[in-house]
Amino acid sequence: METVRVRFAPSPTGPLHIGGVRTALYNYLFAKQHQGTFVLRIEDTDQSRFVSGAEEYIGEALDWCGISPDEGVEQGGDYAPYRQSERKDTYQQYAQQLLEAGYAYYAFDTSDELNAMRERLQAAGKNPQYDTASRMSMNNSLTLSEEETQKKLSSGAPYVVRIKIPENEEVHLNDLVRGEVKVDSSTLDDKVLVKSDGLPTYHLANVVDDHLMKITHVIRGEEWLPSAPLHVLLYRYLGWKESMPNFAHLPLLMNPDGKGKLSKRSGDRFGFPVYPFNWKDPQSGEVSPGFRESGYLLEATINFLALLGWHPGSDQELFSKEELIEAFSLERIHKAGAKFDIEKAKWFNQQYLKEVPNTVLANYLLKDLEEAKIESSQEKAEQVCELMKERVTFPHELWSTAQYFYRTPEHYDEKIVKKKWNEEASAALSAYADALEQSNDSLSGEQAKEQLQQVMETRGAKFGKVMPALRLAMTGQGGGPDLMSTIEVLGRNEVVKRIRQAVDTLAATINTN
Ligand code: GLU
Questions:
Q1: In this model, does residue 313 exceed pLDDT 80?
Q2: Residue 188 and residue 165 share a domain
Q3: Residues 440 and 491 in one domain
Q4: Which helix (H) or strand (E) holds 176?
Q5: Tens digit of each residue's pLDDT (9 = 90 or more) over 16-40
Q6: Helix, strand or coil for residue 297?
Q7: What is the pLDDT of residue 48?
Q8: Which atom of ligand 1 is nearest to the CA of 13?
Q9: What is the DSSP letter of 67?
Q10: DSSP strand E in 203-270: where?
Q11: What is the mean pLDDT of the chain?
Q12: Position in ligand 1 atom list of the atom nearest CA 43
């Protein structure tokens, strides 16, 4: 097999959408599986849609995702430059070649003329496009004489170059995901290849660069499938039919309710991020949330995205990047749109979060503690992480759900108080606090439990009655991680303090319970 070369070719017209990350990921996985090359090409020929910071964002996003390109603007490579705006002269000669061979023509129509044409066709119930049917009534080098055309060109009249789509021809394309795709050329329009500013459109630049950069597989979103027949014609007209890349069009990402394409607006509507990390709009200053800042771990994000449109052919769900590289295949990409199920993304996050070493997780917690102006030792933070990591989905929840490890409860869950706090529990806990005061400073969970057992045996109190009350005194809540481990982390003095406080604060509730 020839050496695999794939490319991710975003236009820097905004931040990289999470769907773009999936496209990049699939390209990356395919390249790595075949010991091939993953190229990043910046398609910036549409200057009017340029957004400052977008190109940098794309590079950073790929780096964060651990899918950095082998060749690209930053990395360099044998086929540089990798930014299309730096390759302008290259495209010119191929446009010329198409013109000379009669596969393209000059069009001088003004925007008024184009509008009039569309209105006329629309009124006649026809497809309002510049195509095999309408081109001969327009102002172009097919309808003008050679002399008139030359005159216009030398007088500097504005023009575009259009492809001359053949009439009534079936254009075939073998898509690796969709199989055979056939299109009647009469449905295609004579797309502009070179704009009036002299720059190529996406179609020309994309085909020329894929050829010159020796791309073997074009793996991209389904939204480009309608353009593929045009690209097939361009490969043929430029004499590159034999070396045309393979195509694989990836299914669209759909909203969680299956209705409509995933977009920036879906994120706002459903309340989840649609960008890899935060994006600040350079114009409005508006910040759109990212996966990274929302607490998604890189491994979880990648795993989630990999399964959005691809099926491993087994029940396995958790995949490391290396396993993905091994298992990935273009043949098992679905045709149907992939629903963006954010709950699944959360599930992945949970699975990966609990595997993160406490030493690493503690950094998240320590940062939040610092912000809350609470001091903590690294050791305590690690202990809290150990107890909490199976119970949270995101690192920031370590702090938000486990504040009681650092703050004596100020409130007690009313429902739990009503159900679980009573005379018997209160008296038993007071006795327990007395016993603890007599004991050792450093108290292990085991010792704390033994002491509690002794106190209860002496008083004939039941474990099932005292434990929920003890938990309430420690945390203010009804649930949480193992209680004795919690007590060990809190330390003897704090435990005694909390019992005394709960007994005092809740004394008034006893009669009413
Ligand atoms: N520049 C196109 C985009 O922004 C690339 C499409 C392709 O991969 O051919 O999506």
A1: yes
A2: yes
A3: yes
A4: none
A5: 999 999 999 999 999 999 999 999 9
A6: coil
A7: 86
A8: 4
A9: -
A10: 217-221, 246-250, 253-254
A11: 95
A12: 1
Q: What is the CATH classification number for the domain harbouring 363?
A: 1.10.8
Please name which of 342, 333, 345 lies closest in space to residue 309, comparing C-alpha atoms: 333
| pLDDT tens digits, 46-87 | 888 889 999 999 999 999 999 999 999 999 999 999 999 999
pLDDT, tens digit, 9 for 90 and up, residues 76-135: 999 999 999 999 999 999 999 999 999 999 999 999 999 999 999 999 999 999 999 999
CA distance 244 to 19: 25
Tokens (6 digits) for 421: 């706090």
Q: What is the largest CA-CA distance in the chain?
A: 113
Please give the single-letter amino acid code of residue 61: A
Please tell me whether residues 109 and 157 are part of one structural domain.
yes
Asked if 23 and 11 sit in the same domain, the reply is yes
**403 and 440 both lie in a single domain:** no
Q: Crossing angle, helix 18-33 and helix 54-64, to 10 degrees?
A: 50
Q: 382 lies in which domain range?
A: 356-407
Q: Is residue 146 part of a domain?
A: yes
CA–CA separation, 155 vs 471, rounded Å?
88
* Site residues for ligand 1, CB cut-off 6 Å: 9-11, 43, 202, 206, 220, 224
What is the domain count for the chain? 4
The first and second tokens of residue 143, run together, are 């309808």
Task: Give the pLDDT score at 258.
Answer: 87
- Residue 439's pLDDT is 83
CATH code for the domain of 492: 1.10.10.350
| Pocket probe mutation, ligand 1, options 87, 220, 252, max atoms within 8 Å of Cβ | 220
335 and 369 in a single domain? The answer is no
Has residue 476 been placed in a domain?
yes
Give catalytic status of residue 264 as yes or no: yes
pTM over 0.90, yes/no: yes
State the distance between the two ends of the chain, measured CA to CA, in whole angstroms. 78
Atom 6 in ligand 1: residue holding the nearest Cα: 9
User: What is the spatial distance between Cα 490 and Cα 326, in angstroms, rounded to a whole number?
Assistant: 46
234, 170, 172, 171: which is closest to 201 by C-alpha?
A: 234
For 68, the token pair is 């950095």
Q: Determine which one of 151, 164, 261, 264 is catalytic.
A: 264
